[in-house]
Amino acid sequence: MLPFRLTLAACAVALAAPCVFAKPVDQVRVGFSTSISGPFAALGAEARDGFNLGIKQLGGKLGGIPVEVLATDEAGNPDTGRQHVDRYIKRDRIHFYTGPIGSNVALAVGPALFAAQVFYLSNNAGPSQLAGSQCSPFFFGTAWQNDSYHEAAGKFASERGFRKVAVMAPNYPAGQDAINGFKRGFGKPVVSETFTKLGQLDYAAELAKLRAEAPDALYIFLPGGMGINFIKQFVGAGLSTSTQIVGPGFSADEDVIRAVGEPMLGMFNTAHWNHDFTNPASQAFVQAYVKEYGRLPSIYAAQAYDVVLMMDAAVRDTRGELDNKDAVRAALRKANFKSVRGDFRFGPNQFPIQDYYLRTIGKDAQGRITNRTLNKVFTNHQDTYAAQCTMR
Q: How is residue 188 annotated by DSSP?
């Protein structure tokens, strides 16, 4: 039996409170609730595969301690996500939570997790609320803040000289962040803003509007099946001959490319990672992923893989004393692992300060249609909402 160790931070909360002791856990329990069905199904499958690869490489352990992963499908539904979290907290007593693709689900499940002092490591969603006024010591935006990809794309569009730009996104929190972020980076008025229904697959009305507006560039945030259908319809309608399409990595990643094919060629997009990065951690991940699944990984897979490494580092650095919340948070904030994205650090709101890149879709030496990194757009970029976070 390992000896108990005094958790000094817990004893310092209130002089009258009894001291709290922590000991290493026998098992790490992780709630992994993502979209295996619904509007984000393809993205959730990518996240699942990246997450599972990380757990497999660690031998089913985190920090050397056996891990139980409680995996469920929230189908992009906030109510379903809340039900899963309620069960994770009350029945399963999880130590960490991750998985949701959509910001609507992230915002729905956050309050219960934070009240229960469960660390939520977001492998994708980074809503502005949780980066700003609603920031929490128990939330880590381990991928990016929603606006950042879009701000980078807006900066590219401005520097490229596009003048008449239309923007389009689904009408939900991440879609609103997308439009705001792009306009912030673009720095000029856009010709139109179109908010579509979340999960929409038929864009006839939107394409007719674009034909009438005749913009020289169109910025879209339409992840998963939404982007797949829109791009096919956009190119099929002949609009790609006069309008340059630009997007965030979400709308032009490997999952979309595999489904759309040739019509993706020439599209510009922005991301914080690509499979052609040359750092050793990224190269090892890509090689292992291709061997395991027979395809190139998307950013969703890479982000979920990073979450596994981050949890592993936190468990290791706290020697498994996961009831010591202050120590776990301090370990998570250090990000003491080799990220596939390269160097990054967490800002005061526990969102990454990191680089963002411009990518374009073309054919590689093997003839595969895929993304190629062109250049850096932002260096050590901090999201715009950090100043609204009073947490320290």
A: S
Tens digit of each residue's pLDDT (9 = 90 or more) over 158-173: 999 999 999 999 999 9
> What is d(CA 249, CA 174) in angstroms, rounded to the nearest whole number?
14
Of 131, 74, 139, 69, nearest to 100 by C-alpha is 74
- Nearest 5°: phi and psi at 219? -100, 125
C-beta separation of 115 from 136 below 8 A:
no
Residue type at position 304:
A
- Three-state secondary structure along 78-128? HHHHHHHHHHHHHHHCCCEEECCCCHHHHHHHHHHHHHCCCEEEECCCCCH
Token digits for 134?
A: 């609603």
Quick one: pLDDT band at residue 16, thresholds 50, 70, 90? very low
Backbone torsion region of residue 327, taken as left when φ is above 0, otherwise alpha when ψ lies between -120 and 50, otherwise beta = alpha
Q: Is the pLDDT of residue 210 over 70?
A: yes
What is the reported pTM? Answer: 0.91
- Diameter of the chain measured on Cα atoms: 74
